[in-house]
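Hi U.,

Before I forget, here's the chain from the pilot set. I'm dumping it here mostly so it's searchable later in email.
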Amino acid sequence: LSHTHNTTATAATTGTTGTTGTHNERHPTAVATAVTVEAMQRLAVGDTMAAQRLFETALAFNETHLGVGHVLTVASVVDLARVLQHRSSTAHAHHAHHHRHHGRDGDQNDSPKAVLEQAALLLRLELARAERVLGPDHPNLALLLAELASVYRQQHDRIKALATLRRELTVRVHTQGSVGSTHDDGAVLGACDFVTCMYTLGCAEFRCGQVQKGIALCCQAVRLCQQQLGDTHAKMASCLCRLANLVRCARPHKERAAVLFSKAVALARSQYQHQHQHQ
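Structure:
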């Protein structure tokens, strides 16, 4: 669920035994890592509630041993929020089925709206706690802000999503001097995340009526991707697609959109062929 788990698993593999792991004092993240891996396995087979309980266990362990605001604690919060978002999306089908067959809604505490609000509350509380510990501009906050904006989008709250994405970009800009480097306790402000933040904000600005501002941000994302990652990086295709979609929606720029879409498709095709040649 979280891209930080690859690093987490590598750093904490020693000290785990079997599925649940045994605690090795030299590797205090070992238990949380083993529990997280099991949670992801449960989620993969559709056992969402078991996965949620395991992610909650991993979060409690990381908060106890690493503290609020640590990058691995933040990763656990993000994972738990994503499970809640997944539950919300699957709950739509469940509630529709229940209403069809019983003529009324099911448990309101398990409704899609209620589950999403749980995710939003979790992220807001963790954000407030982490900010008190780390300060207002620490890059770990950007991870929480990005996920909170995702929850707001799922709740169809464009205004809150936009404000949250703006705050995320402010945090990333503040620490952008160390793009790709380690900051304090190991939080990595990657160029990919920065680019993603910029074009996601551009799309949000566009949807809220700030057409030119949205297009300008997506153009900046393309330039940043070129500078930091290169023209052939996988992220470039995503940037071009977002930009193309915005300029297509802005009626005077349909021809330009077609050119951008063509470039994105050509790049994606080239990357696909390259991957298969090396398999």
